[in-house]
Amino acid sequence: MRTCELDNCDRPYRAKGLCASHYNQQHQPNRHRKVAMQCVLCGTAVMKEPSRARRYQKVFCDEACHALWRMEYAPEMMQAVINARIAMPPKPKPPASNQSRIHVSTCRVCQRAFTARHAGTAYCSNRCRNRARKVSRGKRHKIRRIEIFERDNYLCWICGIACDPTLDVPHRMAATVDHLQPQSFGGTDDPDNLATAHMGCNSRRGASWSWPTLAA
Length: 216
Known about the structure:
Order of helices and strands: HEEHHEEHEEH
Strand order of the largest sheet: 1-2
Shape: elongated
Distance between the termini: 92 Å
Radius of gyration: 44 Å
Oligomer: single chain
Structural class: alpha+beta
């Protein structure tokens, strides 16, 4: 380990070949400079750092003088501070708002009354909000599917047999919407790329690019 190079000092090296003590003595001589001050209580001269005097605002020669000063003067000073705070005028209160912070609303999904922070809140919880979103998405998709089915007269474009409108997925004869050009090959959701197909036919075809249609 590197040590100080001055006066055979064995302290750890800090900078410029010197330890911390020798470095401060040569390059920061006024860092711990002390000046003569008088004790606040007894008037005895004492050497203190100016920074400590500014920090604590009062200088004492020892702990005994400090304790005696607390017993004699500190209660009066604290009482003066308390009296000054009592004499200060009270802070003005902000004007009361006419709008209530709590609003009562009715959930659009479960029809239950609930309280909210903002007026116009439509749902009582995230669960009801997600249910409403799912229903709205389902309605949009259902209307779009019905338009495709009616356009094709419920005829499957793969086998040429009519689908049964009364059946629902996953029945193999239920009507589904199939992409003529699969999405994996760049197909879009445009109506021109959509056609009616049986659930079974759609599943057998999968994502293949071409399929031998029996209708042809």
